[in-house]
Amino acid sequence: MSNDAATAEAEGTAEAAPPVPDPIPHGLGASLPPADARAKTEGTFPYAADLWAEGLLWAAVLRSPHPRARIVSIDTTHAREMPGVRAVVTHEDVPGSPLHGRGGQADRPVFASEAVRHHGEPLAAVAADHPDTARMAAAAVIVEYELLDPVTDPEQAFEAEPLHPDGNLIRHIPLRHGDPDAAGEIVVEGLYRIGRQDPAPIGAEAGLAVPRPDGGVELYLASTDPHGDRDIAAACYGLSPEQVKIVVTGVPGATADREDQGFQLPLGLLALKTGCPVKLTATREESFLGHTHRHPTLLRYRHHADAEGRIVKVEAQILLDAGAYADTSSDALAAAVAFACGPYVVPNAFIEGWAVRTNNPPSGHVRGEGAMQVCAAYEAQMDKVAKKLGLDPAEVRLRNVLATGDVLPTGQTVTCPAPVAELLQAVRDFPLPALPKDTPEDEWLLPGGPEGAGEPGAVRRGVGYGIGMVHMLGAEGADEVSTATVKVQGGVATVLCAAVETGQGFTTLARQIVQDTLGVDEVQVAPVDTDQPPAGPGCRGRHTWVSGGAVERAAKMVRTQLLQPLAHQFGMSTELLQIADGKITSYDGVLSTTVTEALDGKELWATAQCRPHPTEPLDEAGQGDAFVGMAFCAIRAVVDVDIEIGSVRVVELAVAQDVGRVLNPAQLTARIEAGVTQGVGIALTENLRTPRGLIRHPDLTGYALPTALDAPDIRIVKLVEERDVVAPFGAKAVSAVPVVASPAAVASAVRAATGRPVNRLPIRPQAAVATGH
Fold it and tell me: Measured at the alpha carbon of residue 496, what is the angle toward residues 491 and 497, in degrees to the nearest 5?
């Protein structure tokens, strides 16, 4: 060291050493950032609305302005003659099956032909040189209607004339469990209504269809079930599945199966007819008119309980409004009936469930379908039991909660971890938030926000609880299977799997799995298309379980290929070698090398499948092992209510959730917070109103989504990591069950603040005005 350097060091003026960078998150259990985060923030993420092709035409779809009508005639002459119009298609131009649908029930036409059954049903589609021309041409199609009175009340659907050739009843499930003559010392009853929630995706539907030289077509879509969409499209186009390819573009968030076949199917027809690429970008109004919504539901409940608050019997009637077509209503009804008693031990249960067609907009899969609606009802019933017996609402719930080994009303034994009591105790014992100060600077904390009409003296605070449960994966015999391939070459791993990244974090999870298993830092996940083996739809946590399991199995097979030569060289089994931090070491320390050295330029790959254990359909008494696994969540809501004007502010939601295993802490936290916020929307603001079957205000001005200002403080007070032994990694789905529990918790808290029954969601202001005001 020179004298100058020594002097500088002594005086504390030497240059500081460069800071050591934080280690990059790695493997399972780390908060690995999403691979697409940078592209999304920089605006380079490839959404379908941004796609372009040489010779591009633009599409527009003509939709019915009526909820119910007989079609007398469709005249496309004026539209075809407009300059710039290249093609007009109607039901007469559908070469294959005229019907399609999800949930195994093909009952929806590509284009209405003889009758219109809901507002916004597609009638024709146009391809033109300019998007404005396409829209004007669609509007120029002349349709003569014979208007009919719409059936919009699902209770009237039982007696109404058939709205569809398949009739008005989609499914009826009668559940019978226990002694029908059982009775409790007290009885409480309730009638509950749940409104129509729209998934309201951030980006409206869009797509591009490109004809192929072999007479087929390629569809570029934000699909969450590409193989399912391909099979539907091929059947409607009269083509083989091999002639239709779907390439998944960037999905702008999905809280449901957001594909609307009314957009996708016309695109391919127009491309096949014109021989040109055709693009469609929906307006927000078209998005509201086209895609499916959460099932509006009517629920009647009667609970019998003993003097200690233990449930003796539950009787319920559940009616789901499926809208015009079946879609996934059968699945939603199965979940509603099976979970109608909630995560509680109920020795006797008698449930009747129906899903019926009406002339309302179609309902379909939205997070927690079926389970969310019944949770709002059974939790209201638990509050009534507590009130009638003069007991604490949390205590009544604790006396009834489900645990591993208990039996559901469907007769299925709960074999997965079910720490419901632990979850409820965690939120009950979490400290309550401080009361607001009665000072001018804190007026924004009052219900109604800044400049609100309320007075501090009229505000009452309420505390309530909601406990939700959902099933994971498909149910009732659904064949859940996914296939994945893992390749390693040159120190880079590639994952090929048709599991679509919808915001649930699958691509991040796949990278973490491969990093953990193979010790390779750089992991790429290939884009998804239908040339890959199917992975199924992206819902109910199935990609974490099934597709993640397939990636893990394929990575372990590659791991064996990598380690076998080394194990053979040193005379040991591969089980005695471990991979960590990019290094391969033996149990005794004799072998130590890097993964890169072991690869030595070789290409290794393997393909594997994951298929969970089978389930069975519910029988004629609603009995059967219908579900692969379940997840649970407890939420305590704290609300402030202005009991004079009925405005509600959600102060805090404390959440405890059964997650199995935390695979990515940051991602898991974000998913729970998003689910809770979506539930707050269901509880307070979101209701797509459809007077006489007509969607009112189909835009984001008229449909009140919660904003950042509406989001409450969300406290995740406990995550129970009790691994499910039959699930890969032991993890459970996390995003749906907070959506199920939070609306019930908010309603419970409003009941506590006002003394009102609160039997409708979203909560209307008049329902939050306390008795006497």
Answer: 145
Angle at 467 between CA 464 and CA 470, to 5 degrees: 150
Give the CA count within 13 Å in the CB-facing half-sphere of 422. 14
Query: What is the predicted pLDDT for the residue at 74?
Result: 97
| pLDDT tens for each residue of 681-707 | 999 999 999 999 999 989 988 898 888
| Length of the chain, in residues | 773
Predicted model pTM: 0.93
Prior bond to 362 cis, omega within 30? no
**How many distinct helices (H) and strands (E) make up the chain?**
17, 29
Pairing type for strands 69-75 and 592-594 reads unpaired
Distance separating alpha carbons of residues 114 and 131, to the nearest angstrom? 28
* Angle at the Cα of 276 from the Cα atoms of 275 and 279, rounded to 5 degrees: 135
Between CA 511 and CA 530 the distance in angstroms is: 21
What is the b/e burial string over 262-287, where b = at least 16 CB atoms within 10 angstroms of the residue's CB?
bbbbbbbbbbbbbebbbbbbbeeebb
Residue 154 CA to residue 564 CA, distance in Å, equals: 63
Structure tokens at 630: 């379940």
- Whether residue 53 contacts residue 277, with contact meaning beta carbons closer than 8 Å, is answered with yes
Residue 626, pLDDT > 70, answer yes
Q: Which two tokens stand for residue 248?
A: 């998944």
How far does the chain reach from its first CA to its final CA, in angstroms? 84
SS3 for 301-358, per residue?
EEEEECCCCCEEEEEEEEEEEEECCCCCHHHHHHHHHHCCCCCECCCEEEEEEEEEEC
| Predicted pLDDT of residue 259 | 62
Euclidean distance between CA atoms 445 and 124, whole angstroms: 51
Q: Which long-range contacts (CB under 8 A, 24 or more apart) does 406-410 make?
A: 406/345, 408/338, 408/341, 409/175, 409/177, 409/314, 409/338, 409/340, 409/341, 409/346, 409/349, 409/351, 409/622, 410/175, 410/177, 410/338, 410/618, 410/622, 410/623, 410/624, 410/625, 410/626
**29, 205, 254 from 202: Cα distances, Å:** 29, 10, 8
> What does the angle CA 237 – CA 528 – CA 611 come to, to the nearest 5 degrees?
95
Compute the half-sphere exposure of residue 452: CA atoms within 13 Å on the CB side of its CA: 23
Give the integer Cα–Cα distance in Å for 459 and 451.
15
Pick from 299, 200, 318, 99: which is nearest to 695 by CA? 200
> Which two tokens mark 316?
């319920």
Q: Which residues contact 390 (CB under 8 A, 6 or more apart)?
A: none
pLDDT in tens, 30-41: 888 888 888 888
Half-sphere exposure of 426 (CA within 13 A, CB side): 21
Tally the C-alpha atoms within 13 A of residue 296's C-alpha that lie toward its C-beta.
25
Positive or negative: CA dihedral 213, 217, 219, 223: negative
- The answer for 371, left when phi > 0, alpha when psi is -120 to 50, beta otherwise, is alpha
**310: burial class by Cβ within 10 Å (0-12, 13-18, 19+)?**
middle
Q: Which two tokens stand for residue 528?
A: 């998804």
The whole-angstrom separation of Cα 240 and Cα 236 is: 10
Work out whether strand 760-761 and strand 186-194 pair parallel, antiparallel, or are unpaired: parallel
Backbone angles phi, psi at 74, to 5 degrees: -130, 120
CB atoms within 10 A of CB 652: 17
Residue 393's alpha-carbon distances to 163, 273, 406, 431, 554, in angstroms, are 44, 63, 22, 17, 48
SS3 of 718, please? strand
Q: Which amino acid is at 493?
A: A
* Residues 231-260 pLDDT 10s: 999 999 999 999 999 999 988 777 666 667
